[in-house]
Amino acid sequence: KTTVGNLSKSFFGRSDSHYLGGNMNATISALENEIASLYGVPYYMDDASLVGEKFDWINFLYRLANGETKKRASYKEPNATVSTKKFFSHFLISSETSILDKIIEKAKELNSYLEGTLARVTEIEIKRNSSLLFDSEQQLDEVLDFYEDNYGNLAFLIVNNILEKGEETVKREVRELAQEIIESNKIEDDLLKKKKKTIAIMVYTARI
Asked: pLDDT confidence of 80, banded at 50, 70, 90?
């Protein structure tokens, strides 16, 4: 999973760059400040197991969705506060266990559906022997060599394709794809309908 995560970072820069993500052994405020410096580039958080069983995923996800760093007092001027920073991004989190399961367990404990939190998470389960994993050690080594030699290139190709198509065309095609996903899969669940645009953007980006 770490290699897959590093591969995703390499689309935008060096896979070992801490600016594009790192492990979750950090405070939420520290993560927010790192994310705010990226100006929309996705951020990868490796190994959610580091945060422990009592970690408040609901608060964490809402703070990320809020898109603003935490207000804090100024060390230089006790009566003043440091201005907050806005951020707009997507986040990729790797985990040995399901984050959605943790949210659902908390929802049962609170006797609440927590639909807002669930709607903010799209979880992709990768099972053993999945086609999303590597077929062999050799293939893994080839992928490692590839992204170490070609980091940062893919983002430019995606952006250029979007600019060539035109912003309004891309928006229209994403809306059409979202509706196609709903209709072709006969989706009736309201929560899944809310995720249709996110799923459509993922599919659309993969295609271009």
From this structure: low
Residue found by looking up tokens 């899944």 in the block: 192
Q: DSSP code of 23?
A: E
Is residue 116 within 8 A of residue 134, CB to CB? The reply is no
Question: Mind giving me the DSSP string for 100-124?
Answer: HHHHHHHHHHHT---HHHHHT----
- The answer for residues whose C-beta is within 8 angstroms of residue 76's C-beta and 6 or more apart is none
- What gap in Å lies between CA 183 and CA 190, rounded to an integer? 13
- Taking the C-alpha atoms of residue 167 and residue 169, their distance in angstroms, rounded to an integer, is 5
Angle between the N-to-C axes of helices 57-66 and 99-110, in degrees from 0 to 180, rounded to the nearest 10: 110
Q: 3-state class of 86 per DSSP?
A: strand
Whole-angstrom Cα distance, residue 47 to residue 98?
12
Threshold 0.90, pTM exceeds: no
Cα 189 to Cα 143, 186, 202, distances in angstroms:
38, 9, 20
d(CA 22, CA 41): 14
Dihedral pair phi/psi, residue 91, rounded to 5°? -125, 135
